[in-house]
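Table S2 (text version). Query chain:
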Amino acid sequence: MVKAPKVALLLTGNELMSGDTVDSNSALIARALAGCSLQVVEKATVGDNLDLLRSTLSRLAKTYDAIIINGGLGPTQDDLTAEVVASLVDGGKPIENQEARQHVEQWCAARNIKANQANLKQAYLPRGSEIVPNPVGSAVGFACDLYRALVIATPGVPSELEAMLGDVVHRVVQRLGGSQAHLLRLQTFGIGESTVQQIVKETMPDWPWEVELGFRASMPQLELKLAVETDQQRDALAFCEQKLMNAFGDHILGTGDVTLAGELQRILREQGKTITAAESCTGGHIAAMITAEAGSSAVFGGGFVTYSNAMKQQMLGVDPETLNAHGAVSEPVVREMLAGALAHSGADIGIAVSGIAGPGGGTPDKPVGTVWIAWGTAEDTRCRRICVTGSRKLFQTLVSAACLDLVRRQLLDLPPEAHYFQRQAQ
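Corresponding structure-token output:
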């Protein structure tokens, strides 16, 4: 069997080495390539050091089929990518590329500025390079051959890389081959890697050897990746997809890049319903997740962040006697929060949540991490207590996601006893 070509990444910049910038670009590139059955087998990160960049790129280009360089295309003197590549391609310096110069000048003119010497530095590329257009930023990318490899240089600004990535991947596929038909990505919520692996091991002994099962945790979701290498193995891929659907169907949100909030929004639109949220411990994170998705105004008119007891009373009509008798983190309070949110917003369905995010504030009866959630309609309100341990940020992320998932389950008439209830219920 012919193995897929191998790709390496070279990330450049002192800011990556110092930790001032967290590398997210390599993950973006790797996922895009994986969708075409192309594998990143090495990632090198190097600071703005001319000699070290040159020796690293030389080694990679003698080893791999393609190298994608990310960073070092900007206007400053520490942007060294074009100089490094030029020195290896023909031993010379970058030369002015008229197409690249025109791009820089047009980019500057669109912002009512005159292209200066620093801007025009970005028009100097290795001799014989092919332009990789940048629809967002001032620096074009470029592609050229070096030793046995195709080298493609891309800017380090994430938004620019994302805008160029389709073109970059197309060039790699065109040169090396690859197919988008061999990878299936299932987005899930509420199950962990160990649970999936254990259930597959125990209940699916007939799992085909040619189907690779992988995972990518992207809080709060877990992506299950099924991959095969040839067209002839697609039946095995479909077989495994059905196996996973049977085992984890109510935890599977969809395929590709679907998100929990996006899927909930799709369901609400399909059913012609609207949603609201009354939040205490999550501090507006539920509303932020919903409105992060395009088109959210069709299903979400507004929500309520009522952190204090006084705001719960004033904004949602929670009875002071209920608060005094049971405390803010209690079933009676979240039920009244939900009722008030539904009444004031006019939404069809809603969420109310109150909890102890920590690190302080817990008691023996209500330890840090305790959460009460109410969700549903005025006629069908449901309530549950769970405990979520971890950092404050993790707490808010997981609780908010669980709230959205519970509404999704109610709208689709799915079992409410999700895996995270079974593992974390108190």
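Notes on Table S2: The two ends are 52 Å apart (CA to CA). The chain has a mean pLDDT of 91.
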